[in-house]
Design a protein that fits this description.
This protein has about 130 residues and is mainly β. The protein has a single domain, classed as Beta Barrel (Lipocalin), CATH 2.40.128.20. It contains no helices and ten strands. The protein has strands spanning about 1-15, 15-30, 35-40, 45-50, 55-60, 65-70, 75-80, 85-100, 100-115, 120-125. A ten-stranded antiparallel beta barrel has the order 1-2-3-4-5-6-7-8-9-10. The protein is globular. The N and C termini lie close together (about 10 Å).
Length: about 130
């Protein structure tokens, strides 16, 4: 099914918040074991694929794969022009709002890049 996606990401680093809003067109497909949401943000040349399972969410784009599993810390990598950086992601909140299909996804997590300090991120995804 064709959908419109609106995302808002809030990154809090040293008490300062940076808000990133993006939107794009995509698809949502429901399967027996989960749902796959795919969308493009054309102006930034980004393609996202989110796999929503019963107990975890996997988010992938061209440079990173992230796994969100409530109450757990997962390892990931982000590709940069200078090489790969290791990430630790500690998921603190997962909320999925459904009607007949998923309408909203809300994630709150801490992210730590390499051995630097961790900081909080929040992602809200609205599906129309």
């Amino acid at each position: 099914m064709q959908v419109k996606i609106e995302t808002k990401t809030i990154q809090t680093i040293e008490g300062k918040q940076e808000i990133i809003k993006q939107s794009g067109n995509g698809t949502i497909e429901k399967y027996e074991k989960g749902t796959i949401l795919s969308w493009d943000v054309v102006e930034e040349n980004l393609h996202f694929k989110m796999t929503i399972l019963e107990n975890k969410i996997l988010l992938k784009n061209q440079t990173q794969n992230m796994i969100f599993e409530l109450g757990k810390t997962t390892k990931s990598q982000i590709q940069t022009q200078h090489g790969n950086l290791n990430l630790n992601i500690t998921t603190k909140h997962i909320e999925i709002v459904k009607d007949k299909q998923i309408k909203k996804i809300h994630l709150i997590y801490d992210i730590q890049i390499e051995n630097m300090d961790s900081y909080e991120n929040e992602i809200e995804i609205n599906i129309k």
